[in-house]
Automatic annotation (TrEMBL), chain A:
Domain of life: Bacteria
Pfam name, any one: DUF2849
InterPro entries per UniProt: DUF2849
Protein name per its UniProtKB record: DUF2849 domain-containing protein
TrEMBL record, chain B:
Sequence ranges assigned to domain Nitrite/sulphite reductase 4Fe-4S in this UniProt record: 119-273, 408-547
UniProt source species: Bradyrhizobium zhengyangense
Highest taxon of the lineage: Bacteria
Keyword Metal-binding in record: yes
Pfam families with a match to the protein in the record: NIR_SIR, NIR_SIR_ferr
Protein name listed in UniProt: Nitrite/sulfite reductase
SUPFAM superfamilies referenced in this protein's UniProt entry, alphabetically: Nitrite and sulphite reductase 4Fe-4S domain-like, Nitrite/Sulfite reductase N-terminal domain-like
InterPro entries named in the record: NIR_SIR_4Fe-4S, NiRdtase/SiRdtase_haem-b_fer, Nit/Sulf_reduc_fer-like_dom_sf, NO2/SO3_Rdtase_4Fe4S_dom, NO2/SO3_Rdtase_4Fe4S_sf
Entries under Gene3D superfamilies matching the protein: Sulfite Reductase Hemoprotein, domain 1, Sulfite Reductase Hemoprotein,Domain 2
Segments forming domain Nitrite/Sulfite reductase ferredoxin-like: 52-110, 346-397
Entries under PANTHER family matching the protein: BLR3264 PROTEIN, FERREDOXIN--NITRITE REDUCTASE, CHLOROPLASTIC
Length: 105, 551
């Protein structure tokens, strides 16, 4: 999966969210429409074009104390509105390691 | 073991206080992430996929039992109950909270452990042979020199902002267990014709995107001059190393672009300015460091004690002994490698309970000392042969007696896409599947020595280029694809592996490796011919044919 560290241009091909890691503990969070962060993907603000994505990312970057390293990540939105990660990397970030590590929370 | 002095303790404690203040200012918003990032990196704190990752240095791979217990404590109190031993004698904790990091550092500082310079563009942890000081035939204990370099380069202001990270490894044995040829500087301890201690110095080794085997820059540098010579290399690198392109910033690129002759002339010129000045090391300095390494009071023991003779009737014990137990320089003692590669588990991981229990065993059987090797295994360096059967039983209860050291399931793997923010593909699940495929010990033993190395991206933390079989995960059209190389090695005959053909998908990797191994078993001239030697004799083609003929 292409690392978002290599994400140079903001070009989105479908529904996307802004994700980052919470500053004080590092957990995965998503930017919400209420201009806050949530650990729950279902609360993420969905953007559907580059301008929306740029605006959401700019607002997220500005909240430097809340979370670090924000970037745009693809998601899939089901007919019922359920949001799922759009690639393996984001799936792993959401659900944890795939290695059956018993210490996983 | 090395006993730290008051200066060391003060430095480590001051660093904790400094970092505590930095974290406080970061969490209050006084420091931005851009300002804080370089500070956290200098203290071994990365941001990974799920959380912060905290990398702790284990200088030259030597741990006392109170230090291992402190690592277990950190795993238990601040993380999720386990730690991951890396390919450079570090341990990583994957789930640590930034707000709790200063407390974790403070707890580690109490036993002389720190995380300084385990990341960032500076001099990283100086690594060495995990059998240092106990390997038969060694010139002398390389940790004395490792410690000298560690002291000199820790917080060295001139080398805190290098073009890129910088790694040094040292060995004092003919058989290189420290992988010195894939380091920015590799040092091999030797004696000159006068019997004086010095070093063959190699430079410009490294893996990653552009792999190179290190080249000898000087055949003999006297021990008293080693700091000035290293300093001269670093100055040339600091001056000419590229800062405009991260992919071309390592010293290996500079050495390659200038050529080793021109590079060595530059170093020589710089060295002549500084070699007879303050960096020349007095014998007393070395003797002071030497005196701070304590060695066990070994007993006079028989070569073959009764306990070992009797245990030889147990096939399981013998299977473990043959792969895990190595000769020691003192008669009656052995070096025991502890496999952190149980079948079906992530390579290099140890739980807090295992670390605590291993510390107890080290106190009982190894004079309170543990070693960490770049193969992501641990070792007990001073085990009396009479204690081997009892130790084996105790290790087995802890899940630490897998008899696979140096066999095909003794896999080196980076954390990969399961943890790492740079990774493109998963490494650990590939390793887990391979260990299941080759779980049968008789089969693994029949195959013999074979090192598999897996990296989840081109940065090559799993050292795939130098695996007998190397597996590199990349991304292609949103899918994980794995490139397979064969013929690499990381020892004194270090070489880069060659690609056998097009990449294969995640769920095909284990099948392909089985094909490669089957081809080897059919092609080897005799059972003693190792995989790496068969590849050297025949090249890639017969393996390529076997793998791709039906795909």
């Amino acid at each position: 999966m292409t690392s978002p560290l290599e994400q140079k241009k903001i070009k989105i091909a479908g529904p996307s969210v802004v994700t980052a890691n919470r500053t004080w503990d590092g957990i995965v969070v998503y930017r919400t429409a209420a201009k806050s962060w949530s650990a729950d993907l279902s609360e993420a603000a969905i953007v559907r074009n580059s301008d929306e994505a740029k605006a959401l990312l700019a607002e997220s970057v500005a909240d430097d104390v809340g979370a670090i390293g924000p970037y745009i990540a693809p998601v899939q939105v089901g007919a019922d509105g359920k949001i799922e990660p759009g690639n393996l990397r984001e799936q792993i970030r959401r659900t944890g390691v795939t290695i059956g590590q018993s210490a996983q929370a | 073991m090395y006993a730290y002095d008051e200066i060391d303790r003060t430095l480590v404690n001051e660093r904790v206080s400094e970092f505590r203040d930095q974290v406080k200012r970061r969490l209050s918003g006084e420091l931005t992430e851009d300002e804080f990032k370089i500070l956290r990196l200098q203290n071994g704190v990365y941001l990974q996929l799920h959380a912060y990752m905290f990398r702790v240095a284990i200088p030259y791979g030597t741990l006392a039992t109170d230090q291992l217990r402190a690592l277990a404590h950190v795993a238990r109190k601040y993380d999720r109950g386990y730690g991951h031993f890396t390919t450079r004698q570090n341990i990583q904790f994957n789930w640590i909270k930034l707000a709790e990091l200063p407390d974790a550092l403070e707890d580690l500082a109490k036993v002389g452990i720190h995380a300084m310079q385990t990341s960032g563009n500076n001099m990283r942890n100086v690594t060495s042979d995990q059998w240092a000081g106990v390997a038969p035939g060694e010139i002398e204990d390389p940790r004395i020199w490792s410690e000298l370099i560690r002291q000199h380069t820790t917080l060295h202001p001139e080398f805190s902002f290098l073009p890129r990270k910088f790694k040094i490894a040292i060995t004092a044995s003919d058989h290189d267990r420290a992988a010195i040829k894939i380091h920015d500087i590799g040092l091999k301890l030797i004696k000159n014709e006068k019997g004086e201690t010095g070093f063959e110095v190699l430079v410009g080794g490294g893996l990653g995107r552009t792999p190179f085997i290190g080249k000898t820059i000087k055949h003999f540098v006297h021990g008293r001059d080693i700091l000035s010579y290293i300093e001269a290399i670093l100055r040339v690198y600091n001056q000419y190393g590229r800062r405009d392109n991260i992919y071309k910033a390592r010293i290996k690129i500079l050495v390659h672009e200038l050529g080793i002759e021109k590079f060595s002339r530059e170093v020589e010129e710089e060295w002549q300015h500084i070699r007879n000045a303050s960096l020349q090391i007095d014998d007393e300095v070395i003797e002071d460091i030497r005196s701070r390494f304590t060695y066990p009071a070994y007993e006079k023991l028989p070569h073959m004690p009764d306990e070992l003779r009797q245990a030889a009737a147990d096939a399981d014990f013998e299977a473990w002994r043959k792969n895990s137990v190595a000769p020691h320089k003192v008669q009656g003692y052995s070096i025991v490698t502890i496999s952190l590669k149980p079948i079906g588990k992530p390579p290099g991981d140890a739980t807090a309970e295992q670390m605590d229990a291993l510390a107890d065993l080290a106190d009982k059987y190894s004079f309170g000392e543990i070693r960490v090797g770049h193969e992501q295994n641990l070792a007990l360096p001073h085990v009396a042969k009479r204690d081997l059967p009892a130790l084996w039983k105790a290790l087995d209860k802890l899940g630490l007696a897998t008899p696979n050291v140096n066999l095909i399931t003794d896999i080196i793997a980076c954390p990969g896409l399961d943890y790492c923010s740079l990774a493109n593909a998963r490494s650990i699940p590939i390793a887990q599947e391979l260990t299941r495929r080759f779980a049968n010990h008789e089969l693994a033993n029949l195959i013999g020595r074979l090192h598999i190395n897996i990296s989840g991206c081109i940065n090559a933390c799993g050292h795939h280029h130098v695996g007998h079989i190397g597996i590199l995960g990349v991304e292609k059209n949103g899918e994980e694809v794995y490139q397979i190389t064969i013929g690499g090695r990381a020892d004194e005959g270090a070489a880069l592996g060659n690609l056998i053909g097009p990449g294969v998908k995640f769920d095909e990797v284990a099948d392909v490796i089985e094909d490669v191994v089957e081809a080897y078993l059919a092609l080897r001239e005799r059972p003693e011919e190792l995989f790496i030697d068969t590849v050297k004799r025949l090249g890639v083609e017969p393996f390529k044919e076997r793998v791709y003929a039906t795909r």
